[in-house]
């Protein structure tokens, strides 16, 4: 099992979402904690990061396999999240 660390920016982004979506994201983070490879590997300027889809929202995170840590970088709507 991996430790999940959520950047302050991502915490603020989660708090701004409607309650039902917040709950879905938190539940999904538990799944990612068990198996971080569930997400899709990203390319280009986001190389080294992963994306996990939850409806129209995305969780962008990095995996540190050595230390068994998942770092949640950003969370947001699919139209905006890749531009951050």
UniProtKB/TrEMBL annotation:
<dbReference type="InterPro" id="IPR007712">
    <property type="entry name" value="RelE/ParE_toxin"/>
</dbReference>
<comment type="similarity">
    <text>Belongs to the RelE toxin family.</text>
</comment>
<dbReference type="InterPro" id="IPR035093">
    <property type="entry name" value="RelE/ParE_toxin_dom_sf"/>
</dbReference>
<protein>
    <recommendedName>
        <fullName>Addiction module toxin RelE</fullName>
    </recommendedName>
</protein>
<keyword id="KW-1277">Toxin-antitoxin system</keyword>
<dbReference type="Pfam" id="PF05016">
    <property type="entry name" value="ParE_toxin"/>
</dbReference>
